[in-house]
UniProtKB/TrEMBL annotation:
<feature type="compositionally biased region" description="Low complexity">
    <location>
        <begin position="331"/>
        <end position="347"/>
    </location>
</feature>
<feature type="region of interest" description="Disordered">
    <location>
        <begin position="237"/>
        <end position="347"/>
    </location>
</feature>
<protein>
    <submittedName>
        <fullName>Magnesium chelatase</fullName>
    </submittedName>
</protein>
<feature type="compositionally biased region" description="Basic and acidic residues">
    <location>
        <begin position="242"/>
        <end position="265"/>
    </location>
</feature>
<dbReference type="InterPro" id="IPR027417">
    <property type="entry name" value="P-loop_NTPase"/>
</dbReference>
<feature type="compositionally biased region" description="Pro residues">
    <location>
        <begin position="293"/>
        <end position="310"/>
    </location>
</feature>
<dbReference type="InterPro" id="IPR052989">
    <property type="entry name" value="Mg-chelatase_DI-like"/>
</dbReference>
Length: 582
């Protein structure tokens, strides 16, 4: 009988509290409103009921360092640094797929690590991480998480059916946690663990996770030795598929019928004086037949895939490159400083002054610079030039892809094939993306184009834009007008001009909405060719811009194909025929 969702979540949290090597808990498809209650539940079991929420915009300044007023005013370790003698902290991650780069690095540094170091703002701290991390993630977003970050979460539970707060922890669990002794694992049980984990997986993290969960479940049950039943319960908690019957392999076509491995029998044989089985006994254990002719091997899973299994990354196409935890290289074409999001500070005297970091750096030295600083009435801080610090900011993307998508020209061809080289260019170069949609269905006003900006091609809105249904109107002139505005802001009024800008326009050139209709939101009685003429006028505005590469994708032969050629000539773009017909 399957374990209820609430029971799986409770047991997973209890195992994490019991074994410090199971510090990462990943809950798939959890209702966001339940995460804080789960944090309080785990915190009450650990003795620290106040969890720390690590949001998607977490920065290093608040996570690693803080401000202390006692015994003296100065910099103190932040919430992610475990306090000596204090109960472990519960760290909550609302969405692991959207966690900031700083938060991902913190998880990598603290989870599954024996020692952590902090060298920041004059602090030098070394500690043994004990904090427990509880993260949520939609199963559909697993491809956006780096594999080495997913490996830090050995406890994986499908929490889609959880709709209420958890029951309080059992009293025997608190007693087991207070004892602090984990159940031992005999060799035959360890063989059962190896038999339960699918073969062909690199590394031993999954084997260790299942073994540690089995020991924790045995300890929670009040036992001192782990049994095969505990391993089966651990596999049920994770929803691991049952091992395939290795004796029933007649239809595999490999010519060899293999016996089913019995860990208990193997354990009994191994304890019988340590004798090795005779060659005849080993031969009797297998039914060897003549090998069949060689056939190409096809990959096959150990057992049928479970849609609620703990490792969806095995069947999910990764949506990010392996080096995604590394900041992209900044290439500045201007002497102006970066105005990206602050990710720290560094010593400096001019430019983007970091006031808080400057004050925090100078505050511990006030008593040394002025003996009466704290005894006299409050007076200004004593600052010297070495105290000044400036922001260290994340670099804006040095490349930009501007996509103008005319949804009304999608019929009869696959525009994803034609767009693939340009999307690959944006992905490998970590370019910023600006998408302008023309003629999409379900928008607030069909007479106007829609626009949004994304930091990279991995933004889910980009995928939705490429698959948007077709609408009835084609405000191509307004879409090109938005492209002109976007490029002007980035190239001239933006904070960092783009070094490489690629403009891709996918259209058949048939714009049936004039620019004045898009501005007023009202369709005139007679349109004629006004929409096409307005689109050509906006295209000529694009041709006046320098340092951009423009491409117009033509859907292919059709009546009125000259409109696309005229549009490409007007904006000085290269005309490219679209992909293969559907």
């Amino acid at each position: 009988m399957a374990m209820p969702t609430a029971s799986r979540v409770r047991y997973a949290l209890a195992c994490a509290a019991l074994d410090p090597r199971l510090r990462g808990v990943l809950l798939f498809d959890l209702e966001p409103a339940l995460l804080l209650g789960i944090g309080h539940w785990l915190g009450s079991l650990l003795g620290n009921p106040h969890p720390y929420v690590l949001g998607a915009s977490a920065v290093a300044n608040t996570a690693w360092t803080g401000l202390a007023s006692r015994p003296a005013f100065g910099v103190s370790p932040g919430p992610l640094v475990d306090k000596r003698g204090a109960p472990p902290l519960t760290v909550l991650v609302s969405d692991l797929a959207r966690l900031s780069l700083t938060g991902q690095r913190a998880a990598i540094a603290l989870l599954d690590a024996d020692v952590a170091h902090l060298e920041r703002e004059g602090l030098s701290v070394t500690w043994a991480p004990r904090s427990r991390w509880v993260a949520t993630c939609a199963r559909a977003d697993v491809g956006r998480i780096p594999p080495h970050l997913l490996d830090r979460f050995p406890l994986r539970v499908n929490a889609a059916g959880l709709h209420a707060d958890l029951e309080p922890p059992a009293e025997k669990w608190r007693r087991a946690l207070a004892r602090g002794r984990l159940a031992t694992m005999p060799d035959e049980v360890a063989r059962e663990v190896l038999d339960r984990v699918p073969a062909g997986v690199a590394g031993a993290r999954r084997d260790l996770a299942l073994a540690r969960i089995s020991r924790a479940l045995a300890t929670l049950g009040g036992r001192t030795r782990t049994t095969n039943a505990d391993v089966r319960r651990a596999a049920s908690l994770l929803r691991l598929p049952a091992p395939r019957d290795r004796g029933h392999d007649a239809g595999s076509g490999d010519g060899v019928a293999r016996e089913r491995y019995d860990p208990e029998a193997a354990g009994r044989a191994g304890r019988r004086g340590g004798e090795e089985p005779s060659p005849s006994a080993r031969a009797d254990g297998f039914n060897v037949v003549a090998p069949a002719p060689a056939q190409p091997l096809a990959p096959s899973p150990v057992s049928p895939a479970d849609p609620g299994g703990p490792y969806p990354e095995d069947d999910t196409e990764p949506e990010r490159d392996p080096g995604s935890l590394r900041s992209p290289t900044a290439r500045h074409s201007s002497s102006r400083p970066s105005h990206g999001r602050s990710v720290g500070s560094r010593p400096g005297t001019f430019g983007d002054l970091a006031l808080v970091a400057t004050i925090l750096g100078a505050a511990p030295l006030q008593a040394r610079r002025c003996e009466d600083h704290y005894s006299r009435p409050p007076h200004p801080l004593h600052l010297i030039p070495p105290d000044l610090r400036v922001h260290r900011r994340s670099a804006d993307p040095a490349r930009l892809l501007v996509l103008v998508l005319d949804h009304t020209c999608r019929a009869g061809w696959n525009w994803l094939d034609a767009l693939a080289p340009y999307l690959q260019w944006a992905y490998t170069g970590r370019a910023g993306v600006s998408v302008i949609e023309v003629g999409a269905a379900g928008v607030a006003n069909e007479l106007r184009a829609q626009r949004f900006s994304a930091s990279s091609l991995l933004d889910p809105r980009v995928v939705r834009a490429l698959e948007r249904p077709v609408g009835r109107c084609t405000p191509l002139a307004h879409g090109l007008d938005l492209a002109v505005e976007t490029l002007r802001h980035r190239l001239h009024l933006g904070r960092i001009p783009a070094d490489d800008v690629l403009l891709v326009i996918v259209t058949d050139g048939r714009g049936n909405i004039p620019l004045r209709a898009s501005a007023t939101g009202r369709l005139p009685d007679h349109v004629g060719s006004e929409g096409v003429e307005d689109a050509l006028a906006m295209a000529r505005e694009l041709s006046r811009m320098k340092r951009i590469h423009a491409v117009v994708l033509d859907p292919g032969p059709r009546p009125g194909a000259a409109l696309t050629r005229a549009l490409a000539e007007a904006c000085g773009a290269r005309l490219q025929q679209g992909g293969e017909p559907r």
